[in-house]
Structures are given as C-alpha cells and as structure tokens.
Write a structure and sequence with these properties.
39% of the residues lie in helices and 19% in strands. By secondary structure, the chain is an alpha/beta fold. It has a domain of 284 residues: Metal-dependent hydrolases (TIM Barrel). The strands form four sheets. A six-stranded mixed β-sheet has the order 3-2-7-17-18-19, covered by helices on one side.
Length: 428
C-alpha cells in the first residue's frame, strides 16, 4: 500500500507514551498526524487494526546478513569460540559468490520485515567477494524498504592483501538514499598493529567503527589484558563507534567506553549460543555506558532479543529486582540510533518523521499505560507475530506476505545457492 492511509482502532506506543483512541495518519512517507478518528478526511483509507499494538519500527544495532545461508550448514564440532570462527564463519565468508551474497542480504531483509525491523545495522564479511560487496548488500536492503548502515569486516585472518581490499571497500563505498556507513573491523585478535595504524590514519575523524570487542577471552588475552587501551590508541573508540559484545571488558574499560560516548552493542542470545559468557547489562548501564541491542546474525527478532536480555540480566546478577529499567533504556538507546544517521528518522512515532511502524498481533488484555508499556513489550509482545510492517509509509509486510516479492522463488533460489556454497565448504 502506498499513498495516504490511516491506522485506526489500535493502541499506539510511540516509544515514549501510550495513546488510545487516536488514528495514526500516514502520507508522503511520514507520520502526518495522530488525531481522533472523527477528524480524518473522508477520502482517507482506514485500516482497522482491531485493538492491536502499534509501535515504531525496530532498529537492529548488529546483524550479519551474510550468515543467512548457514542454517543447517555442515561443519565440524567446535571446542571453543576460535574454532567456531575458523570452522564456520571464516569458511563461509570465503565461499560466498555474488548471487549467494545478494540472496543472503535479500532473505535477511525480508526476515527483518517479518519481525518488524525497519532499520538495520549490518556487519558484513565476504572475502570471496570484496569489491562492490557493500553496494550489493545495501541495494538489496533498500529494495526491501529497509534503512541500513553497512560496513565490511576488515581482518588479517586471510592475509594482508585481503585486509587491504576490505579497507578499500569500506572507504570507497557510497551509500544510497536510505543508506549510511561505518568502518567494519573484526575482533582485535585478527588485527595487528600495522593494520590498525593504517586504518586509524585513513578513516576520517567523523566516521565511526563497527567492531567486535571482547566477545571472548581470546580477544582480551591477545591484547595482554589491554584490549580497549589498544583500540583507543588507534582511534577506534570514538563517539560514532559501535563496540559489539563487550562481555569481557573490565569495569575501568566500561567507564572509558562511557566517557567516549561510543555505544556498546549487547547480543544476549548470540553470547549464550557461543558459550562466551554474558555482558553484565546492569553493571554497564550503572557505569553510564550507552548500551544498544542487536541479534548478531542468530535471528532477526528484536523483541526476542529484548526479552532474552531481560532474563539474562536477572540470571547474571541472580537478582529478580533488576533488568526491567536497564532493558527499557537499552531499547530507547537502540531506537535512537536511527536519528543519528538520518534527520528524518527518530526511532519513535513522531509527527513529521519517517513512517516506520510495526503492528503486532498483540491485543493488550490487561490495562496498558505509558508507565507499564515496557512490561507489555517484555512479557506479552514477544509471543505475538507481526501483523504488519510499514517503512517509509509503505506496507512492506502484512499477514504473512511481502507485497511485490515471490517468496517461493526466493526460497528456492536460496536453497540452490546454499547447496552451491556448502559444496565449496566440503572441498576446502
């Protein structure tokens, strides 16, 4: 659906407040108004959402679209985190070809829409296709209607020439209309000082980095316990940067992150899945760190990630009195990333701003107010599927369908691409 329309009959959570009895008017790609239904012009098409919850489209602060074809992929059993990287992800990124790369991005974008994500910050790696990879990825995201921030993961794991090619890909990339960029870096233990020095010298001061940081003890051990100091020495820790994971950062390092203004990206389920430990969200928040949330390629549901972060915070602290306020602040900070990249976006439902919206098949069955809205988001909303996702005022997903996309043919193409990529893995 394009043009002007209104969502009526729903409960609206703007990101700050709960509104009832209001129609949400969309037109020209933005939220035109929040008004009583009786004030809508007669010619406006009305979509009755029947008491369901309307929220701002979700922002995902860290994803790996290139991992889309890994579901069911053959690999040897890994004994530790480094072996997971070596046996799965570093083999996959070398095996991708251009078609597999494009399909991975397309599939991930469509999955994001199915889960209400309208803004995606992606951390890409495809050492089988380096030149032009970011253009392919962002083109697919934009075709699906996502706003996106992309980068290519610079790493020395495949040699100096490959690392330099990745750096050039980051520097030469020019984002599209709904795109932006960061400079991608893998974890410090795959980046030697010479490489970090060149990156630091060539990246402009106003461009941020997107780097895996202290995800596993191997990263800390490689830097002899001075990981953040090492990254800061090369200018990586700056306000525009996203430091992903931070599981093994010390308290003094978290305080340094807070002073820098950089965001720390929490990926709770990925950390549990990889057995690397867990970020102490309560401690990081108390120290003033701006914590945001991502899915790290494990899935595309931000509601699932927020619920997991909430439970993990209580489990980590062994305290049933924590987690609620911290995850609420994390949600606000994550949504706020949209504003930092695009002046027409706010991560909230706001008149005059881009109409990025999600309608959940969740009808609050108990009172919902501004004060208890986050409780509904944590306890009720994650169990409900998305009914509709709107980005830029256009319905991109509704009732199990993606208008304009033939999911049968896309699924079949992904299956063929996966078979081709997996065959390459078996011979390497």
């Amino acid at each position: 659906m394009r043009g002007e329309f209104a969502l009526v009959g729903g409960v609206i959570f703007t990101g700050r407040a709960v509104l009832k009895g209001q129609a949400l008017l969309v037109g020209e790609g933005v939220v035109r108004g929040l008004v009583p239904p009786s004030e809508l012009p007669r010619e406006i098409e009305q979509i009755d959402v029947a008491g369901r919850l309307i929220l701002p489209g979700f922002v995902n602060a860290h994803h790996h679209a290139y991992s889309a074809l890994a579901t069911g992929m053959p690999s040897a059993a890994a004994r530790n985190f480094r072996e997971v990287l070596e046996q799965v992800w570093w083999r996959l990124d070398k095996a991708l070809d251009e078609e597999a790369l494009a399909l991975s991005a397309r599939w991930t974008a469509l999955q994001c829409l199915q889960h209400g994500v309208t803004t995606l910050i992606d951390h890409h790696a495809s050492y089988g296709v380096v030149r032009g990879a970011l253009e392919i990825v962002q083109r697919e995201f934009e075709a699906c209607g996502l706003s996106s921030v992309v980068c290519f993961e610079i790493s020395g794991r495949h040699g100096r020439a490959a690392a330099m090619a990745a750096l050039e890909e980051n520097l030469s990339f020019r984002p599209g209309p709904r795109g932006a960029r960061l400079i991608g870096l893998h974890a410090g233990f795959t980046l030697d000082d010479e490489l970090l020095r060149e990156v630091g010298e060539r990246v402009p001061d106003d461009v941020g980095f997107h780097i895996h940081c202290a995800e596993d003890v191997v990263d800390v051990a490689n830097a002899q316990g001075q990981l953040l100091e090492r990254l800061a020495r090369f200018g990586i820790v700056r306000r525009q940067s996203l430091l992903v994971h931070g599981v093994h950062l010390r308290e003094d390092e978290l305080e340094r992150v807070a002073r820098s203004g950089a965001a720390l990206v929490h990926c709770p389920e990925s950390n549990m899945h990889n057995g690397v430990g867990s970020l102490d969200l309560v401690r990081a928040t108390a120290l003033g760190v701006r914590v945001v949330c991502g899915t790290d390629g494990l899935h595309s549901s931000m509601l699932r990630s927020y619920a997991a972060a909430y439970l993990l915070a209580r489990h980590t602290r062994r305290d049933a009195g924590v987690g609620f306020a911290e995850t609420g602040r994390m949600y606000t900070s994550t949504q706020g990333l949209a504003r930092s990249f695009w002046p027409d976006s706010s991560g909230e439902i706001e008149v005059g701003k881009r109409a990025d919206l999600v309608v959940l098949a969740y009808q609050p069955h108990t009172p919902i107010t501004t004060e208890n809205a986050w409780g509904h988001v944590l306890y009720g909303a994650p169990l409900a599927p998305v009914q509709m996702t709107i980005s830029g005022g256009v319905v991109r997903y509704a009732d199990g369908c993606w208008p304009g996309w033939d999911m049968r043919s896309i699924t079949a193409a992904c299956t063929r691409a996966a078979e081709r990529v997996w065959a390459r893995l078996r011979v390497t």
